[in-house]
Amino acid sequence: MSFEYPLNYYQFFVSFNMGDYYECHDLLEEVWLEDRSNHFIKGLLQLSVAHYHYSYGNIKGARSMFESADTYLSKYSGKHWGISIIGVRDHIHDCLNIIPQTRPAGELPELPVLYLNIEEE
To answer: InterPro entries per the record (predicted)?
Structure first.
């Protein structure tokens, strides 16, 4: 069974996989504003914001957004809107384990890369 998703959702995958997390926020925010009860989209939105914060060194903001994303996505299991929830949550947990508690001197450790694709339900 195939499901039609909003165009911005499809565009989100391209932006996310390219590492353009700021654009991801804009794309998903439009989807979320149409249905604020959609905690799945809110979780992906927070995931994107977490990566964006980390990209410019805001570890406190990144940690907070990863935790928020995990909370929103914990309400789902299996696949939702074509995404493996466990895969995304595993990624979030991996990132939280890597992010330092305080800003270290020098460069931040690299976070693992997550590539998202819509999988058949």
So the answer is: DUF309, TTHA0068_sf
